[in-house]
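From the pipeline queue, job 12 of 40. The input is one protein chain; the requested action is below.

Action: predict structure.
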Amino acid sequence: MIGVLVNTATVIIGSLVGLLFKKSISRRFTDAIMLGIGLCTIYIGISGTLEGENTLILILSIVLGAVIGTGLDIDKRINDLGDWIGRRFKKAEGDSVSVAEGFVTASLLFCIGAMTIVGSLNAGLTGDNEMLFTKSLLDLISSAILSVSLGIGVMFAAAFVFAFQGSIVLLAQSLQPILTDSAIGEITCAGSLLIVALGLNLIGVTKIKVANYLPAIVVAPLLSWLLTIL
Protein backbone atom coordinates (compact mmCIF):
# COMPACT_ATOMS: atom_id res chain seq x y z
CA MET A 1 0.00 0.00 0.00
CA ILE A 2 3.04 2.29 0.14
CA GLY A 3 2.49 3.41 -3.47
CA VAL A 4 -1.16 4.27 -2.76
CA LEU A 5 -0.23 6.22 0.37
CA VAL A 6 2.43 8.19 -1.52
CA ASN A 7 -0.02 8.96 -4.34
CA THR A 8 -2.65 10.11 -1.85
CA ALA A 9 -0.12 12.34 -0.10
CA THR A 10 1.07 13.93 -3.35
CA VAL A 11 -2.50 14.87 -4.31
CA ILE A 12 -2.97 16.57 -0.93
CA ILE A 13 0.40 18.36 -1.07
CA GLY A 14 -0.08 19.47 -4.67
CA SER A 15 -3.58 20.76 -3.90
CA LEU A 16 -2.33 22.74 -0.91
CA VAL A 17 0.36 24.35 -3.07
CA GLY A 18 -2.24 25.26 -5.71
CA LEU A 19 -4.59 26.71 -3.10
CA LEU A 20 -1.80 28.89 -1.72
CA PHE A 21 -1.07 30.26 -5.19
CA LYS A 22 -4.78 30.76 -5.86
CA LYS A 23 -4.99 33.35 -3.10
CA SER A 24 -2.51 35.59 -4.93
CA ILE A 25 -4.10 35.22 -8.39
CA SER A 26 -6.95 37.52 -9.42
CA ARG A 27 -10.37 36.16 -10.36
CA ARG A 28 -9.83 37.22 -13.99
CA PHE A 29 -6.83 34.90 -14.29
CA THR A 30 -8.39 31.97 -12.41
CA ASP A 31 -11.42 32.12 -14.73
CA ALA A 32 -9.10 32.04 -17.74
CA ILE A 33 -7.16 29.13 -16.24
CA MET A 34 -10.40 27.24 -15.57
CA LEU A 35 -11.48 27.66 -19.18
CA GLY A 36 -8.09 26.36 -20.32
CA ILE A 37 -8.35 23.37 -17.97
CA GLY A 38 -11.85 22.69 -19.29
CA LEU A 39 -10.55 22.58 -22.87
CA CYS A 40 -7.62 20.33 -21.85
CA THR A 41 -10.04 18.08 -19.97
CA ILE A 42 -12.11 17.63 -23.14
CA TYR A 43 -8.95 16.74 -25.07
CA ILE A 44 -7.87 14.21 -22.41
CA GLY A 45 -11.35 12.66 -22.46
CA ILE A 46 -11.51 12.38 -26.25
CA SER A 47 -8.05 10.77 -26.33
CA GLY A 48 -9.07 8.23 -23.69
CA THR A 49 -12.28 7.19 -25.44
CA LEU A 50 -10.15 5.77 -28.27
CA GLU A 51 -8.90 3.06 -25.86
CA GLY A 52 -12.21 1.20 -26.05
CA GLU A 53 -12.72 -1.63 -28.54
CA ASN A 54 -16.40 -2.47 -28.13
CA THR A 55 -18.97 0.29 -28.62
CA LEU A 56 -21.76 -1.92 -27.27
CA ILE A 57 -19.94 -2.25 -23.93
CA LEU A 58 -19.57 1.52 -23.79
CA ILE A 59 -23.28 2.09 -24.48
CA LEU A 60 -24.43 -0.52 -21.96
CA SER A 61 -21.97 0.75 -19.35
CA ILE A 62 -23.20 4.34 -19.66
CA VAL A 63 -26.88 3.33 -19.68
CA LEU A 64 -26.61 0.92 -16.74
CA GLY A 65 -24.32 3.33 -14.91
CA ALA A 66 -26.86 6.12 -15.38
CA VAL A 67 -29.68 3.93 -14.07
CA ILE A 68 -27.68 2.91 -10.97
CA GLY A 69 -26.28 6.38 -10.35
CA THR A 70 -29.61 8.14 -10.79
CA GLY A 71 -31.34 5.56 -8.59
CA LEU A 72 -28.76 6.16 -5.85
CA ASP A 73 -28.77 9.91 -6.63
CA ILE A 74 -24.97 10.00 -6.40
CA ASP A 75 -24.78 13.55 -7.77
CA LYS A 76 -26.97 14.95 -4.99
CA ARG A 77 -25.10 13.02 -2.31
CA ILE A 78 -21.72 14.28 -3.51
CA ASN A 79 -23.04 17.84 -3.85
CA ASP A 80 -24.50 17.70 -0.34
CA LEU A 81 -21.14 16.51 0.97
CA GLY A 82 -19.39 19.20 -1.07
CA ASP A 83 -21.70 21.90 0.30
CA TRP A 84 -21.01 20.68 3.84
CA ILE A 85 -17.26 20.79 3.20
CA GLY A 86 -17.62 24.20 1.55
CA ARG A 87 -19.37 25.62 4.62
CA ARG A 88 -16.71 24.21 6.91
CA PHE A 89 -13.96 25.82 4.86
CA LYS A 90 -15.90 29.05 4.33
CA LYS A 91 -15.84 28.93 0.54
CA ALA A 92 -15.55 32.37 -1.00
CA GLU A 93 -18.76 34.08 -2.04
CA GLY A 94 -19.38 33.73 -5.75
CA ASP A 95 -16.87 30.93 -6.24
CA SER A 96 -17.61 29.62 -9.74
CA VAL A 97 -16.75 26.00 -9.06
CA SER A 98 -18.40 23.93 -6.35
CA VAL A 99 -16.43 21.65 -4.06
CA ALA A 100 -18.30 18.70 -5.56
CA GLU A 101 -17.33 19.63 -9.12
CA GLY A 102 -13.67 19.92 -8.18
CA PHE A 103 -13.86 16.59 -6.35
CA VAL A 104 -15.49 14.66 -9.22
CA THR A 105 -13.29 16.22 -11.90
CA ALA A 106 -10.04 15.52 -10.06
CA SER A 107 -11.14 12.02 -8.97
CA LEU A 108 -11.80 10.95 -12.55
CA LEU A 109 -8.65 12.57 -13.94
CA PHE A 110 -6.48 10.93 -11.26
CA CYS A 111 -8.05 7.46 -11.37
CA ILE A 112 -9.10 6.76 -14.96
CA GLY A 113 -6.37 5.20 -17.04
CA ALA A 114 -4.11 2.20 -17.42
CA MET A 115 -1.36 3.64 -15.21
CA THR A 116 -3.68 3.70 -12.20
CA ILE A 117 -5.08 0.21 -12.66
CA VAL A 118 -1.95 -1.59 -13.84
CA GLY A 119 0.16 0.19 -11.22
CA SER A 120 -2.23 -0.84 -8.45
CA LEU A 121 -2.35 -4.44 -9.71
CA ASN A 122 1.46 -4.58 -9.82
CA ALA A 123 1.63 -3.25 -6.26
CA GLY A 124 -0.89 -5.80 -5.03
CA LEU A 125 0.47 -8.82 -6.90
CA THR A 126 4.25 -8.31 -6.77
CA GLY A 127 4.83 -5.37 -4.42
CA ASP A 128 6.20 -3.31 -7.35
CA ASN A 129 5.23 0.34 -6.70
CA GLU A 130 7.34 1.92 -9.44
CA MET A 131 4.39 2.82 -11.68
CA LEU A 132 2.43 4.30 -8.77
CA PHE A 133 5.46 6.37 -7.75
CA THR A 134 5.68 7.74 -11.31
CA LYS A 135 1.96 8.50 -11.26
CA SER A 136 2.38 10.22 -7.88
CA LEU A 137 4.83 12.70 -9.37
CA LEU A 138 2.43 13.45 -12.24
CA ASP A 139 -0.49 13.87 -9.83
CA LEU A 140 1.55 16.21 -7.63
CA ILE A 141 1.90 18.60 -10.56
CA SER A 142 -1.65 18.07 -11.85
CA SER A 143 -3.30 18.63 -8.46
CA ALA A 144 -1.40 21.89 -7.98
CA ILE A 145 -2.59 23.18 -11.35
CA LEU A 146 -6.16 21.93 -10.98
CA SER A 147 -6.69 23.35 -7.49
CA VAL A 148 -5.89 26.87 -8.72
CA SER A 149 -9.15 26.90 -10.67
CA LEU A 150 -11.19 24.03 -9.18
CA GLY A 151 -10.51 24.81 -5.54
CA ILE A 152 -10.41 22.65 -2.44
CA GLY A 153 -12.52 19.90 -3.99
CA VAL A 154 -9.34 18.69 -5.74
CA MET A 155 -7.70 17.98 -2.40
CA PHE A 156 -10.62 15.85 -1.27
CA ALA A 157 -10.18 13.74 -4.40
CA ALA A 158 -7.25 12.23 -2.47
CA ALA A 159 -9.84 10.20 -0.55
CA PHE A 160 -11.15 8.72 -3.81
CA VAL A 161 -7.59 8.01 -4.99
CA PHE A 162 -6.89 6.16 -1.74
CA ALA A 163 -10.14 4.17 -1.84
CA PHE A 164 -10.01 3.31 -5.56
CA GLN A 165 -6.34 2.36 -5.80
CA GLY A 166 -6.26 0.81 -2.35
CA SER A 167 -9.18 -1.47 -3.24
CA ILE A 168 -7.40 -2.70 -6.35
CA VAL A 169 -4.18 -3.33 -4.40
CA LEU A 170 -5.95 -5.29 -1.65
CA LEU A 171 -8.14 -7.25 -4.08
CA ALA A 172 -5.47 -7.69 -6.76
CA GLN A 173 -5.52 -11.50 -6.68
CA SER A 174 -9.30 -11.57 -7.17
CA LEU A 175 -9.46 -8.74 -9.71
CA GLN A 176 -6.61 -9.93 -11.94
CA PRO A 177 -8.83 -12.25 -14.06
CA ILE A 178 -11.38 -9.45 -14.54
CA LEU A 179 -9.04 -6.51 -15.15
CA THR A 180 -7.62 -7.78 -18.44
CA ASP A 181 -6.07 -5.43 -21.00
CA SER A 182 -9.42 -5.33 -22.79
CA ALA A 183 -11.32 -4.53 -19.59
CA ILE A 184 -8.86 -1.75 -18.70
CA GLY A 185 -9.43 -0.30 -22.16
CA GLU A 186 -13.18 -0.30 -21.63
CA ILE A 187 -12.86 1.33 -18.19
CA THR A 188 -10.66 4.02 -19.74
CA CYS A 189 -13.14 4.53 -22.58
CA ALA A 190 -16.21 4.86 -20.33
CA GLY A 191 -14.39 7.02 -17.79
CA SER A 192 -12.96 9.23 -20.52
CA LEU A 193 -16.44 9.89 -21.90
CA LEU A 194 -17.36 11.17 -18.44
CA ILE A 195 -14.22 13.32 -18.51
CA VAL A 196 -15.43 14.87 -21.78
CA ALA A 197 -18.73 15.67 -20.04
CA LEU A 198 -16.80 17.26 -17.16
CA GLY A 199 -14.84 19.40 -19.60
CA LEU A 200 -18.06 20.59 -21.26
CA ASN A 201 -19.41 21.51 -17.82
CA LEU A 202 -16.24 23.43 -16.96
CA ILE A 203 -16.43 25.62 -20.06
CA GLY A 204 -20.13 26.26 -19.42
CA VAL A 205 -21.59 24.41 -22.42
CA THR A 206 -23.55 21.82 -20.42
CA LYS A 207 -24.72 21.04 -16.88
CA ILE A 208 -24.47 17.25 -16.95
CA LYS A 209 -24.78 15.44 -13.61
CA VAL A 210 -21.60 13.48 -14.27
CA ALA A 211 -21.49 11.86 -10.82
CA ASN A 212 -24.67 9.93 -11.64
CA TYR A 213 -22.73 8.12 -14.38
CA LEU A 214 -19.81 7.05 -12.18
CA PRO A 215 -21.06 3.42 -11.80
CA ALA A 216 -20.26 3.02 -15.51
CA ILE A 217 -16.56 2.61 -14.67
CA VAL A 218 -17.45 -0.45 -12.56
CA VAL A 219 -19.99 -1.84 -15.04
CA ALA A 220 -17.56 -1.60 -18.01
CA PRO A 221 -14.98 -4.19 -16.83
CA LEU A 222 -17.72 -6.54 -15.62
CA LEU A 223 -19.36 -6.49 -19.06
CA SER A 224 -15.99 -6.99 -20.72
CA TRP A 225 -15.28 -9.97 -18.46
CA LEU A 226 -18.74 -11.50 -19.06
CA LEU A 227 -18.22 -11.17 -22.79
CA THR A 228 -15.03 -13.26 -22.59
CA ILE A 229 -16.70 -16.13 -20.72
CA LEU A 230 -19.89 -16.30 -22.78
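Job complete. The chain is about 80% helix and 0% strand.
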